[in-house]
Specification:
mainly beta, Porin, elongated
Amino acid sequence: MKRLVCAALALAFFGLAAPSDSSAQANVFIGGGVTSPTADFKDFGDGDGANLGWMATGGVQMPVGDAGLALGVRGFYGTNNHDYEGDKTNLYGGTALATFAFGEAGAVAPFIFGEIGYQAHSYKSTDFASFEDTEWKPFIAGGAGLNFPLGGLSGFVVVGYNQGLGTEDFGADTGKTTYITGAAGVNIPVGGGM
């Protein structure tokens, strides 16, 4: 049910992105990078906190007007191993995304972003299978980045703060899933005018 709600939220949000200018061009983006757990996610009980991990991401966004605003959707999947060998957490989900870029398209331009959606916190363990669990919770994120020209495409680098809105089970313990992401990727223009 939560997956369906997340998908409906994302589609509804993306539906608002339909531009009034028929020449507006959507961008598909793909990227990847690192996740650095913080707070409860990094330091939960019995010395089994989550460590630096990886995350892949992708989505689509559409400009709205000429002021630098774009709306879209994003999906992600990543893994963080734990201090205790054989334990890990998989993080995956989907969000509605809003970005605001400063500067001209096709040039080096900083941007800010905000997101809301759902995230799964999926704990896995080779030795403590009875504690394995996957929980879906509301999720928010925000941060900043930089777009830059990359041949006929554009690249980006981004840093964000991510917060699960609820208490998850971390094996035998509970806490909030918070982490910092650092990623790089590419924007691929599709449709619309050139």
